[in-house]
């Protein structure tokens, strides 16, 4: 029987509403044990959190937003868009690898090699460029863990692809050279994000033939039996079942427990109520154990309300806030696309430095992604950007580190270009 997309979505929504009470009950039933310490896995407890001075002083971090989608070198969200008929990445995939019913994302993962990845060398370059902290991709929406993952044993970087513990390698290199170390998680939304893999073409000679995401043998990668693809992805936790929320908790707790990051970044809001609060409390308690009872870890959320009282540091994607904010915040942006894309035009060193100065003047930090290609070695144009940032920071960094905002944040055009809706507004800035 075929049903309309609208009716299918209504069915999902009704089912979600009917199970809301069971989800809340299930959260209480699951084992949400966390490290002992000053914080509990509740909103009220986390409101007592205070941002540590190291983050206020650091101002500048670098990020390797790197994973198997980088191996294709055709830009961000490849693993989702390759299953969206008519998209540029779908067309590229069909022309280069074959139809996604025959060659899926699972088949591209072994092509991700990182054969020239040298974390010690790269961290030394980034330290010279002025970075005070470094962030590794932990897991992107593609459901592939970049560490030796207990709860994703088949699809992780130690098991397939590079066959190396990438997070562990970054952590060791960063700490050896005195940088704070962070990880990013984009996993919480994966349950929705990967629904495109469960579809099929609607037109042409392959119409109706299921993509490989419908094969139950690969649901540990493609997440579920969800078959309703919604083109405009709703960036919230609606219709995400309790089983996935608990799985997310287990995966991210494994990441934090094993690598003890100084910073944990979530690509979105603090998710899943008790599960999310428990993850943050666990992060802070582990940090407190290492630091004489006081946490000096950072948790980044992209929802302003999450960080209104203690709890976390707000992250603003590709944007600058409208004024000097009373609490520290962070911009995350990239010199190109989030995942490596061949031939893209990168931000100039001047644009990066202008952004850094503007952000710092408004009480923020800049987290800048240098997207690595399949090999794990930055291309010559990227290295040139890093070298020019290094040159500027070698002269001017004392005006950046350890500073606090003054009475005003700018002068002239820079004070008029930014609206309070701060995400994705960096393109509106004037020189």
Q: What is the overall shape?
A: globular
Q: What topology, given as strand order, has the largest sheet?
A: 1-2-3-4-5-6-7-8
The run of helices and strands is HHHHEHHHHEHEHHHEHEEEHEH
Number of strands: 8
Question: Strand percentage, roughly?
Answer: 5-15%
Distance between the termini: 58 Å
Give the helix level as a range of percent. 25-40%
Pick out the low-confidence regions. Answer: 1-25
What structural class do the secondary elements suggest? Answer: alpha/beta
Please explain how this structure is put together.
The structure is a single chain. This protein is α/β, with parallel strands linked by helices. Helices cover 34% and strands 10% of the residues. The protein is built from 15 helices and 8 strands. The chain has helices spanning 5-18, 20-29, 43-46, 53-58, 78-81, 88-96, 105-108, 119-128, 166-176, 190-193, 219-222, 242-259, 274-290, 349-361, 380-396, and strands at 60-64, 133-139, 180-185, 263-266, 298-301, 313-317, 329-334, 364-369. An 8-stranded parallel barrel has the order 1-2-3-4-5-6-7-8, surrounded by 5 helices. Helix 12 (242-259) runs parallel beside helix 13. It starts with a helix and ends in a 35-residue tail after the last helix. The relative contact order is 0.16. The model is unreliable at 1-25 (pLDDT under 50).
Observed structural traits:
alpha/beta, disordered N terminus, 431 residues
Question: What topology does this entry show?
Answer:
Blueprint: H1 5-18, H2 20-29, H3 43-46, H4 53-58, E1 60-64, H5 78-81, H6 88-96, H7 105-108, H8 119-128, E2 133-139, H9 166-176, E3 180-185, H10 190-193, H11 219-222, H12 242-259, E4 263-266, H13 274-290, E5 298-301, E6 313-317, E7 329-334, H14 349-361, E8 364-369, H15 380-396
């Amino acid at each position: 029987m075929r049903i309309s997309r609208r009716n299918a979505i209504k069915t999902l929504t009704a089912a979600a509403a009917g199970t809301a009470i069971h989800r809340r009950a299930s959260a209480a039933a699951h084992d949400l044990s966390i490290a002992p310490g000053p914080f509990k896995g509740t909103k009220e407890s986390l409101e007592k959190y205070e941002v540590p001075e190291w983050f206020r002083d650091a101002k500048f971090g670098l990020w390797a937003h790197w994973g198997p989608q980088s191996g294709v070198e055709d830009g961000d969200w490849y693993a989702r868009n390759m299953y969206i008929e008519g998209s540029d990445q779908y067309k590229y995939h069909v022309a280069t690898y074959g139809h996604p019913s025959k060659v899926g994302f699972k088949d591209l993962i072994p092509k991700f090699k990182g054969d020239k990845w040298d974390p010690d060398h790269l961290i030394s370059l980034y330290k010279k460029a002025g970075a005070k902290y470094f962030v590794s991709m932990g897991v992107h929406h593609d459901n592939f863990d970049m560490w030796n993952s207990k709860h994703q044993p088949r699809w992780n970087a130690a098991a397939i692809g590079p066959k190396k513990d990438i997070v562990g390698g970054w952590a060791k290199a960063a700490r050896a050279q005195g940088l704070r170390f962070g990880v990013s998680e984009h996993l919480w939304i994966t349950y929705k994000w990967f629904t495109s893999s469960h579809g099929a073409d609607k037109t042409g000679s392959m119409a109706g033939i299921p993509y490989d995401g419908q094969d139950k043998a690969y649901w540990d990668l493609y997440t579920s039996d969800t078959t309703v693809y919604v083109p405009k992805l709703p960036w919230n936790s609606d219709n995400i079942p309790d089983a996935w929320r608990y799985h997310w908790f287990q995966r991210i707790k494994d990441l934090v427990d094993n690598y003890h990051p100084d910073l944990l970044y979530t690509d979105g809001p603090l998710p899943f109520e008790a599960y999310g609060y428990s993850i943050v409390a666990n992060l802070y308690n582990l940090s407190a154990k290492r630091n004489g009872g006081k946490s000096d870890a950072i948790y980044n959320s992209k929802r302003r309300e999450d960080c209104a009282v203690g709890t976390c540091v707000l992250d603003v994607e590709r944007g600058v806030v409208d004024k000097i904010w009373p609490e520290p915040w962070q911009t995350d942006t990239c010199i190109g696309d989030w995942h490596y894309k061949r031939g893209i035009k990168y931000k100039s060193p001047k644009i990066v430095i202008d952004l850094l100065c503007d952000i710092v003047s408004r009480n923020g930090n800049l987290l800048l992604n240098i997207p690595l290609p399949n090999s794990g070695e930055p291309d010559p144009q990227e290295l040139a950007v890093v070298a020019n940032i290094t040159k500027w920071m070698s002269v001017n960094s004392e005006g950046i580190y350890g500073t606090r905002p003054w009475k005003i944040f700018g002068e002239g055009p820079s004070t008029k270009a930014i609206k309070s809706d701060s995400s994705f507004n960096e393109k509106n800035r004037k020189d």
